């Protein structure tokens, strides 16, 4: 019994000593941790300040934009826009002219046909009159009148009949279908016209079919 009573105070004393040691250790560690935290907090603002200073230094070191370069860039952009607009205008013009060209080719004969319509009307009248009266002489006169009217219209368009008889044979204007003996003409001269040739202004529209002296 005495032994147990003596050990209990000893154990209590040991526990008290351990608690005091733990408290002292915590007290010692707390200031150290607080000091490290304060040091970190103080270092952070310093780091931010350094970064800001570096940024200012980089901006200061960067060369300022040359106003001449900026002006040239604006001018180049304006030229590019004008070029795009000009290309669009040219494409529209090309499509429009192509359409006009196609329409012109399609209706190129409109003027001539319009001028020929009165002649067609006269042919119909002459034929109707000849059938009603039975007068062949009137028909001949009517056809002759219509032919002269037609020849006048074609002449206004630049059509002209070639003069061939008595002319030297020219393969550019004449197509020889036969060679004949002739006492009146020298060799190589057109002596007879089988089919008229025509010029349209300064171009051969149809060569004349002729007989040539041999």
UniProtKB/TrEMBL annotation:
CDD domains: GrpE. Keywords: Chaperone, Cytoplasm, Stress response. GO terms for molecular function: adenyl-nucleotide exchange factor activity; protein homodimerization activity; protein-folding chaperone binding; unfolded protein binding. Its main location: cytoplasm. HAMAP family: GrpE. Belongs to the GrpE family. It comes from the Bacteria. Homodimer. Signal peptide: none annotated. Residues 1-80 are annotated as: Disordered. It is found in: Cytoplasm. This is Protein GrpE. GO terms for cellular component: cytoplasm. Participates actively in the response to hyperosmotic and heat shock by preventing the aggregation of stress-denatured proteins, in association with DnaK and GrpE. It is the nucleotide exchange factor for DnaK and may function as a thermosensor. Unfolded proteins bind initially to DnaJ; upon interaction with the DnaJ-bound protein, DnaK hydrolyzes its bound ATP, resulting in the formation of a stable complex. GrpE releases ADP from DnaK; ATP binding to DnaK triggers the release of the substrate protein, thus completing the reaction cycle. Residues 10-20, 27-48 have a biased composition (Low complexity). GO terms for biological process: protein folding. Residues 53-80 have a biased composition (Basic and acidic residues). The gene is grpE.
